[in-house]
Amino acid sequence: MGQYLIYFLLYFQLSTLSFLSAQPLCHEDERLALLQFKESFIIDKINTSADRCVFPKVDQWKFQGVDCCSWEGVECDHNTGYVISLNLSKSCLHGSINSSSSLFRLVHLEKLNLAFNNFSYSEIPSALGNLSRLTYLNLSYSSFSGQIPFAISKLSKLSTLDLSLNSGVNPSEGLLELKRPDMKSLVQNLTRLTYLDLSLVDVSSPIPSVLANLTSLTSLSCHNCKLFGKFRKMFSIYQTFSSLSSQLKVLSIWMTNFSGEVPASIGNLHSLEFLALSHCKFTGLLPPSLGNLTKITHLGVENNSFRGDVPSFLSNFTNLEFLSLGNNQFHASEIPSSLENLIHLERLDLAQSSFTGCFPTWLTNFTQLRFIDLGFNELQGELPSSIARLKNLQYLDMNSNNLSGVVELNTFLQLQNLEFLSLSNNKLSVLSKTSANASLPKLVKLRLASCNLTIFPDFLRNQEGLQILDLSFNHIHGQIPKWLWEMSRKSLLLINLSHNSLTSFEEPPLVLPWSSLMRIDIGNNMLQGSLPIPPLSTAVYLVSNNSLGGEISPLFCNVTSLQVLDLSDNNLSGMIPQCLANFSNSLAILNLYANNFCGPIPSTWESGNKFPVHQLGS
C-alpha cells in the first residue's frame, strides 16, 4: 500500500510541474512594449496629489522577473500568454501619451485602466481605436484634454467607458469635449455599454436619441457635462425600452442644464438605486411615482425650483443613505416626521428650505449620520445635547437659523470624527469650557460667528489641522493669546476674528506664522501696537477700524500675492511704501483711509494705471 502512495505522490508532483511549465510566459514583444511604455513617463511621487499616486506599479516591474504576466497591474491570457488587461490606475504616471506609444502594440488588450494619473493635458490618442478587443476603458481623472477621438466609437465590444473628471487647475472645469464627433456619433455603435460616465466632458447638446439603443445600460453619469433640453424628452426616448427600465441602477445628471418638470415615467425605473438631479433647472412637483423606487439609496435634488410639500413618499425609501433636498421652493413647514423612517441615512441636506420648528430630536437616533446641513432655515429653540449620540458625525452646519439658548461646546467635542462645525448667526450662547482630559476631534473648519463667546475656546490650542476659523461678531476681549500663533501653523487658510473687543497681541511674531494663510480679518476691534505682517501666501488682509500705529514695515513688500488690503481707520503713520505700487497687477482693492500717512503718493496710483479701486486717505 505504501509504494502505491509513493507512486501517486510522484505522479501528482510530475503532473503539477508539467502543468506549471506549460503556462506560457509573456511574449517578448509585449514585454518590451510594456517597458517602453513605462520609460515614456516620469514616476512623480512628490508633485502628484495623493489621490493620483497611491502605488507606482510600474516601479515594481524591474524586481518581478522577466515574465511580464506576473508584473503588478498586468494580466495575461492563461492559454496564449498575451496581455489582456493593464491596470495602472493611481500609478503616479506623469507625461504625455500619443498614438505612437508602445501601449498600442498590446493588441490583445481587453481591459485598460489608466485612471488617476497625469497625462499633461495631452489628447486621447486615436490609436485606441485599434484595440478592438477592449471591453473596459477607463481614462478618468487623468488630465486628458481636447476632442474625444471618433476612433473610440469603433470599440463596439465596450461594456464600460469612463472618460470623466479630466480637469485642469479648476476641478469643476472639464478639459475634454465631445462635439466633433458629438455624443450621438460616439455611442451609436457602443450598444453593449453597461456603464457610461462622461462627467465633466463638454457635450453641449441635447440628449441624443441613440441612447435608447443602449438597452444594457445600468449606469449613466453625465454630471456637469452641459447637456440641455427638457428632461421629459429624455424619458420619452426611454419609454419604449422596457429593458432599460428594468436594469438602470445609476442616473447621475446633476449640474446639467436640464429643465422642466420631472416626468411621472421616472417611476418606471424600478431598479434605480442612485438618482442625482441636483443643480439643474427643474421645476414643478416631485412626481408621486418616485415613490415606486423603493431600492433607492441616494436621492439628490437640491438647488432646483421644485415646489409643493416635501413628499410623504420619502418614508418608503427605507434603504436611503443620502438625501439632499435643500435650496428648492418647498412649502415652509416643520421638518416632516415622514423622514423618521430613514434610519440608514448617512447624509442629510435640508439647507435653505425655510423649515420652521425645532431641531428634530428623532434625528439624533440616526447613529449612522455623517453629514447634516440644516443651515439657512428658520429653526427655533435649543439644540439637544443628544446630538452627542451621533458618533459618526463629520459635518454639522446649523448656520443662520433662529436657534437660542445655551449650548456647551463640549457636546460637539465628544464627536471624535467631527471635522466641520458651524453654529454661526443664531441666538446661541456657546460655552467654550472643555474638560482638560477631553479627547478632541481633529477639526478642519470651525465657524462660531455671533455665538456670544467671551474668550478664545481653549481646545483650539491643540488643533493642528484647522483650515478655517471664524470667531467674528462675538464678545471676545483682551489679548490675542500667544498660543494662537502656534495653532495649525501649516494648514490654516482663513482666520476671522473681526468685530470683537480685542485690544492687543501677546508676544506677537514679526511675521504671522501661518504658512498657507490666504485670508485674515482682524478688523473692527480695539487693537493697539504695530501692524502685523501677513504671511507671503496672503491674498486678503483686513485690519480696518482698530488703533494700530507706527509705520508699515518694508517686509510688506514681500507679500506679492495681496489682492485686497484694507488698513483704514487706524493710527498708521510714515510714508506709504513705494513697493506697494509694484502690486498693481494683483492688488485689486487698497484702502488706507483715515490714517496719518505722509509723503508722496506713488506715481503709478496718481495716473490710475492698473488700479481699479483705491482709497488713500483724508
TrEMBL record:
Disease resistance R13L4/SHOC-2-like LRR domain boundaries: 246-350
InterPro entries: Leu-rich_rpt, Leu-rich_rpt_typical-subtyp, LRR_dom_sf, LRR_N_plant-typ, LRR_R13L4/SHOC2-like
Membrane topology: Single-pass type I membrane protein
Domain annotation Leucine-rich repeat-containing N-terminal plant-type: ranges: 27-77
PROSITE patterns: LRR (PS51450)
Localization per Swiss-Prot or TrEMBL: Cell membrane
A Pfam family it matches: LRR_1
Keyword Disulfide bond attached: no
Protein name: Probable leucine-rich repeat receptor-like protein kinase At1g35710
Organism: Durio zibethinus (Durian)
